Amino acid sequence: MLLGLGTIVEGSTYRLGNLRQMGPGYFPVMLGVAMTIVGVLIAISAMQPSTDPEHDEDAIPDAPEWRGWICIVAGPVLFIVLGAYFGLLPATFACVFVSALGDRTMTLKQATLLASGITISGVIIFVYLLGVAFPILRWPS
To answer: Which tens digits make up the pLDDT trace of 12-55?
Structure first.
């Protein structure tokens, strides 16, 4: 919630524009609104009493899930690095693939299919439909 509110405050310092002609602050403000709403919904659901008291004991794992933490943090780092040097396609694939491997039940085949689907969808949506100026593929010079 706090991150969403901070995004709204910072984004509102830029010109917002409207839906037809978005200014530089429009997307951050809308993203902040969405983050705040999700935060409120999470807080409300956390305050609800549990329906299964026996299940509450299993909610906290015995040991930290280092694999999940490492994979989920490594995904966006890979996106930043690969996106800067190689383009949207390898960056998106690597980000989703590595992040998906943070789930112990995910197989390599499932992670590959998920990453392929998200990559294809992302390229179609962001490059072809929205015209975002992000190269699909490039080689570092």
So the answer is: 999 988 888 888 989 999 999 999 999 999 999 888 876 666 66
Last residue of a domain, one of 56, 79, 101: 56
Domain assignment present for 139: no
Q: Domains in the chain: how many in total?
A: 2
How far apart are the C-alpha atoms of 127 and 92, rounded to whole Å?
13
For the chain, percent helix, then strand, then coil, each to nearest 5? 65, 0, 35
Which SS3 state, helix, strand or coil, does residue 22 take? Answer: strand
Angstrom distance (rounded) from CA 49 to CA 112: 38
32 and 82 both lie in a single domain: no
Question: 53, 8, 6: which is closest to 27 by C-alpha?
Answer: 8
Tokens representing residue 26 in the block:
């429009």
How far is the C-alpha of 36 from the C-alpha of 125, rounded, in Å?
A: 25
Question: What domain range includes position 98?
Answer: 66-129
Give a yes or no: residue 137 inside a domain.
no
What CA–CA distance (Å, rounded) separates 57 from 50? 11
Q: Residue 77: inside a domain, yes or no? A: yes
Residues contacting residue 13 through CB under 8 Å, at least 6 positions apart: 25
